[in-house]
Each structure stands twice: as C-alpha cells, then as structure tokens.
Amino acid sequence: MHSAAKFHHLADEVTVWRRHLHQKPELDFAVHETARFVADKLASFGINHIETGMAGTGIVAFIRGEGGEGPTIGLRADMDALPIHEATGKDWASKIPEKMHACGHDGHTAMLLGAAKYLVGRRNFKGTVALIFQPAEEVELPSGGLKMVEDGFLDRFGISQVFGMHNWPGIDVGKFAICAGPMMASQDDFDIVVKGRGGHAAAPHLTVDPVVIAAQVIIGLQALVSRNTNPAESLVISVTKLRASNAYNVIADQVELAGTVRALAPALRAFAETQLETTARKIAQAFGGDISYCYRRSVPATVNDIAATALAVRAAGGTGAAAVDDKLRPVMGAEDFAYMLQARPGALIFIGNGRSAALHNAAYDFDDAAIPYGVAYWANVVEAVLGIGNG
Question: Is the pTM above the cut of 0.90?
C-alpha cells in the first residue's frame, strides 16, 4: 500500500492543475476546455488509449498493467462546475462570472490525473485501469453518469467494478468515510398545481382559495414523513417553491408548489411518489379544489457493494489516513455515480476537506492538502483489486 507521504512531491504539480481548472469552470456537458486539458495531460503521461466524446465530453482512458491478464476496473472523477458566483477571494478564484467549482470536481479531476501519472510509470498490476472523467454530474436528467451508462461504456470496455471518491467538508483532511449499502439518497422532484377559484381578496368567501389549500398541502406532506413512515428509516420531503398571485388584493385561481424527495430505500421512494399525489389531492378536494401532479424520478440511491467497500476501506487505510470511518451514517444528498453502481459493483468514498464552507456554497474551496491522500487512495485501490498477489 502507498502512503500519502509518498505523493507529496507529485501533489505540488497536481495542485497547479487543480487551481488551473478552478479558474476556468465549465457547466454541465459543455466542459470542452476541461476535457481538452484532461486529454492532453493523459497523452503527455504516455497513455495512448484515450476515448473522448463519451456522453459528449466525457473521457475514458486505459492503463494496462504488466502483471498479466486480469479484470478492468473503473476509477471515476467528475469534471463540471456550478452556476454560482465565487466569493472565496482566492488567488486562483474563478475567472468566469457566475461559474465556480463549488463542489470540488476540480480536485476530483486533478487527483485522478495525478494517479494516472503515477500508475503509468508503475504498472505492476494485472488487468487494466479505466480512468473515467465524467461531465454533467450536477445535471438532473439526463446526467452525465446516466448518459455514459446508457451509451454502454461499461459493457463496451468490459469494466467489471467502479470506484468513486468525493470530498466532504466537515471530515478532517487526511481522513476518509464510507459505509456499505446505501450511502447517499435518491433524488426525485415534484410539481403540484393547486387549483381553486380566484377572486377579490376582500371577498374570500366567494372564492376557493388555493393559497389556503396549498398551506394545508404543505403541512400534510410533512405528516407523510412524521406520521406515515418508520422514524428509523430515512425519507425527506421538502417543498422548495411556492408561487401564487403577484398582487396584494388578488386571490389567484391556482398556486404552484414544487419540491424534492430524498430516500435511501426503493420502497420509500415508491411510497412518496404515490402518497404525495393522494394526500395533496384529497386535501385540495376537501376544500373544494383539486390538483395536477407531476413526479420525476431522478438519481437513484448510491449503494456501495459490501466487498468493494471492504477494498475501499483497505485502500484508504493504506494512505496513512488518521482515520477511516467505515460506519458513516448515510447522507441525504444525491450523487449520479449511483447509475454506475447500479450497473456494476463498486463503492463511493468520502475524502475529508476539513472545516471548509459547505458544498455548493460561494465560499467553498477544495483543500489542496487532501491531494496526496486522494492520489494515494487511487493507487491503493488499484493494488487492492489488481495487485499481482491478489486472487
């Protein structure tokens, strides 16, 4: 196993790459300059099998070991940024207004590039490493992860296992966290239009007020969680949008609600999809109104394979990490690496980003002190799965 200390010199170069990427963030599938930077770096390392244009701008590059025949495993990093105006004030802050790497994908990409440079020069493993650089993780549907899986890259290249890594504020730099089974939640979105009968706000008795109905619907939806699901299980229903009249003295004909649903179990996801509509419609009808309803399934839960999680824990521990928490409590955020984990066994792990601002915050920045741990982790995953002495 390789300790992080082994990669401190390489980490200086990787930090330069990371800060370069941070200054030039790109969104969604339009990560053209980022992908070009990644492809050029991979070629400069001596990697000659580089597949570009995956899901539009994704890249899959291959390093074949010198230890003989073996499986192909995938190591995945995401490349896209977010539509946020950066407020860090750092020397390497985004140079593009209203775009920033507020989720650390610049760090993920740079660390996987660092591992690629190391692995090219030390191929004492069997089989093949597939380096997966994915666009559009922050997009809902179709996300980059879904698009790449639907395009068949896992089958096309015979990838048997996949591993991912995401930085996590609140976990100290030099520490990792993971759990087997569901680690991150599914994400679905809903729209409800509450329909009533509008009129003058001074004569509410002549209307069927959709604002009052909407208020009751919001309360009723919260009761779905607090009174209709097991409190030991995890379900989140959040109403995040509410739009009614634009005037003080008008009761509108309808009110628009929208929100998100997060769940760790497929049964809870299905429960939410059906019961949201049933609850909202019955409440609206009780007040003389009705609803229209749209529910969109997005990212599934991120579920770590038990055996792959054990390999990930071993790889993280080998970095010399101060701690590896293998009993992480699942979080209700979503991650589109879930699509790859639906198709292949594998594991996602969190790498500590220290006491930084939260992800998706204008004050966030990836902590470059985590880089040697991330590069060492990737090298150790390869050794744990494809090491010559294994299996």
Answer: yes
